[in-house]
Amino acid sequence: MKKILIPAICLLLAACDSGSGDKPQINLADTTVVPGKPLPELVSADLVKIDSSAYVMYPLLHNRDQNDEDSGSFVSSDGGRSRMFWNIIFYNTATKKYHLLDDKRKMIINAYNIADSNSEYYGDVSVPDQFNPNTIQEGNFIFYSIITEDYNKDRKLDSDDPTYLFMSDKEGNNLRQISPSGTNVVSWDLIKKSAVILMQTQRDSTRNGEKFEAPRVPYIYDLKKGGIPERVFDAKLNGELNALHQKQWPVKKK
Predict the structure, then answer these.
(1) Which of 88, 80, 138, 136 minimizes the C-alpha distance to 110?
(2) What domain of life does the native source organism fall in (predicted)?
(3) Would you place residue 118 in the very low, low, confident or very high pLDDT band (cuts 50, 70, 90)?
(4) Nearest residue to 180 (alpha-carbon basis) of 159, 150, 195, 202
(5) pLDDT by residue (tens digit) across 173-230?
(6) Using an 8 Å Cβ cutoff, are 114 and 53 in contact?
(7) Quick check: 85 and 108 in contact, CB under 8 A?
(8) How many whole angstroms from its chain centre is CA 9?
């Protein structure tokens, strides 16, 4: 009986050894792909982390190449190109839920910044100042420079229309405009100690089809109170200063 068992055990061990080096192959199928149907295209910039939270942002590229339309899934942008965005997806990595920054408004996002991180983006550096607002940040908000209004009625949203300053919370909710309508935000600063935003704005600088240097008007927005932005200096002070300037620096008659 022992003579029969020993060869049988040896054969069994040999069979086990011969297969021990083979690793099982696991095929991970893409469950989002439907046979015969192309995957819808979403052209996105690289993801942006929002501090240490579970949220990340996927800015959606507006100036996409026509050749990109047939490629698959998310396509990261070429870092060498200037970029504008038509919306931003906020994705919660913990719950796997997501939403758009704004699903009702047609807009062009030229710039955004996120507090307490290195995730700022600004558009083409060759464009006018209004595309490159100051980068100072407030810890609980994300700020955006956005074109939303076809101000000159040419059926386009571009640099000929005013850029407004918007803000949202860090989950991409409660998007709201904090600069006055009809004025272009040239620059802005956050004064952290008083929790206010100071903006330099400029009204339409075209008159009778010709460009001119429009005056810059400072506005203030209170982050604690909310509401509407207010002029830093009232009309009375403006009148007094203009009168003083004309008195001290009279224009000589020719």
Answers:
(1) 88
(2) Bacteria
(3) very low
(4) 202
(5) 999 999 999 999 999 988 888 999 999 999 876 666 566 568 889 999 999 999 999 9
(6) no
(7) yes
(8) 68
**Cβ-based neighbours of 97, under 8 Å, separated by 6 or more:** 91
- 82-111 pLDDT, tens digit each: 578 999 999 999 999 999 999 999 999 999
Q: Which amino acid is at 18?
A: S
Query: Is 241:232 a contact under the CB 8 Å cutoff?
Result: no
Q: Are 86 and 109 in contact (CB under 8 A)?
A: yes
For residue 191, what are the β-bridge partners? 196
The reported pTM is: 0.70
Contact 106, 161 (CB under 8 A): no
Q: Which amino acid is at 61?
A: L
Residue % of the chain over a pLDDT of 70: 62
Nearest CA to 226 out of 176, 157, 170 is that of 176
